[in-house]
Design a protein that fits this description.
- By secondary structure, the chain is an alpha+beta fold.
- It has three domains: 7-24 and 259-371, no CATH class; 29-39 and 187-252, Gyrase A, domain 2, CATH 3.30.1360; 43-180, no CATH class.
- The protein has helices at residues 7-21, 31-34, 65-77, 203-217, 240-248, 335-344, 349-361, and strands at residues 29-30, 35-37, 43-52, 94-102, 111-118, 129-136, 142-149, 151-152, 155-158, 163-166, 171-180, 193-198, 222-226, 229-233, 251-252, 259-263, 268-271, 276-277, 280-284, 287-298, 310-321, 325-329, 333-334, 365-366, 368-371.
- The strands form eight sheets. A six-stranded antiparallel β-barrel has the order 3-4-5-11-7-6. Strands 2-12-14-13 form a four-stranded antiparallel beta sheet. A three-stranded mixed beta sheet has the order 17-16-25, with helices on one face.
- Helix 1 (7-21) crosses helix 6.
- The longest helix has 15 residues, at 7-21.
- The radius of gyration is 33 Å and the shape is flat.
- It comes from Profundibacterium mesophilum KAUST100406-0324.
- The basal body constitutes a major portion of the flagellar organelle and consists of four rings (L,P,S, and M) mounted on a central rod.
- InterPro entries: Flag_FlgI (IPR001782).
């Protein structure tokens, strides 16, 4: 039987632990790890194509008429002739969507990876080959062309009465499967200034980046425009790649909003270092209901006429109420210490999540509580 406890004892242990260990110091990180440079970005490409050479796992043309039309158009362009009205029964072809990311400053002839995803009812793309597929950007221009054998990580197997599927066999990749044909015009060296864009906007972090750049490059070159942007002027008209290389290796201590993230499905709790709770009284308890089914069999007498065997279920229901202790949690307590203490004394993830939600509802939790 577990010994009863009070959260007041836990609060004392939490305060002692926080005083002994101290608050963790924020780590310095490079600017390139928390921000990006405006204009230096990837671009999404997309295309529609056909995968051939499948071993009977392609689209069924009756259910995917767009696959049949695509096959007809491809064969006509290759000089096979007009196939309209002819009935196709091939199952070795699948219609796919091809996606890729065009890196910044990609030059003609460079290769990029592509992802191939089935569009119809194909069961697997394993062993197939992608036919030449133009990849277009958001402006409709073609920037790359993809083609080649595809690699599938998942697999599917099926018998007469059973089947097994591992992974997703209808999604595949082609390493270096597309060749860049057109470049995106970007006069990088002609810029008079560059902007550093924070991935997580924060005024404190933006000011620290401004101070770090001004210390390294000279006062007045960097200015924080808002919580997510720091502008750096190229006053000496130096080489911009060299300037960016100097900026991205500077280190700062990023700041963040206090936040608690809870995944209720898995019981995962992630707590930021700046989370604090005020004085609050907490009581936690609950009910345990046990239902036990006992099956008894009633047999008729040995010489009885018309008697039948009857199964009689017997149900026992019991309710156990756990003792709840109401105590006062005092002081500016680190929530990490509180959760560590709750875990140490056996409070499960579900109970911990309930306690955190109740403390937030009481207004004593100074952090954003995000449930995913």
């Amino acid at each position: 039987m577990r010994t009863p406890f009070t959260l007041k004892t836990l609060a004392i242990a939490v305060l002692l632990g926080a005083a002994a260990l101290g608050a963790p110091a924020a780590a310095e990180v490079r600017i390139k790890d928390i921000a990006s440079f405006e204009g230096v970005r990837e671009n999404q490409l997309v295309g529609y194509g056909l995968v051939v050479g499948l071993n009977g796992t392609g689209d069924r043309l009756r259910n995917a008429p767009f696959t049949e039309k695509s096959i007809e158009g491809m064969l006509e362009r290759l000089g096979v002739g007009n196939l309209s009205g002819d009935s196709m029964k091939t199952t070795n072809t699948a219609a796919v969507m091809v996606t890729a990311m065009l890196p910044p400053f990609a030059r003609r002839g460079a290769t990029i990876d592509v992802v191939v995803s089935s569009l119809g009812d194909a069961s697997s793309l394993r062993g197939g080959t992608l036919i030449v597929t133009p990849l277009s950007g958001a402006d409709g221009e073609v920037y790359a062309v993809a083609q080649g054998p595809i690699a599938v990580a998942g697999y599917a197997a099926q018998g007469a009465n059973a089947s097994i599927v591992e992974g997703v066999p209808t999604v595949a990749r082609i390493e270096n499967g597309a060749t860049v044909e057109n470049e995106i015009d970007f006069a990088f060296n002609s810029l008079d200034s560059i902007r550093v864009a924070l991935r997580v906007p924060d005024f404190t972090t933006a000011m620290r980046i401004e101070e770090a750049i001004n210390r390294a490059l000279g006062n007045g070159l960097a200015t924080a425009l808002d919580s997510g942007t720091v502008e750096v002027r190229n006053g000496a008209k130096t080489d911009l790649p060299e300037l960016l290389a100097r900026i991205e290796t500077l280190t700062v201590k990023p700041d963040s909003v206090a936040k608690v993230v809870i995944d209720a499905r898995s019981g995962t709790i992630v707590i930021g270092a700046n989370v604090r709770i005020d004085m609050v009284a907490v009581s936690q308890g609950g009910l345990t209901v046990k239902v036990k089914e006992n099956i008894e069999v009633s047999q008729p007498e040995p010489i009885s006429i018309g008697g039948t065997t009857v199964v009689v279920p017997q149900t026992d229901v019991s309710v156990v109420e756990n003792d709840a202790y109401f105590s006062l949690l005092e002081g500016d307590v680190s929530l990490q210490r509180l959760v560590d203490g709750l875990n140490a004394i056996g409070v499960g993830a579900t109970e911990t999540i309930s306690i955190l939600q109740a403390i937030k509802a009481a207004g004593a939790l100074h952090a954003d509580l995000e449930i995913i």
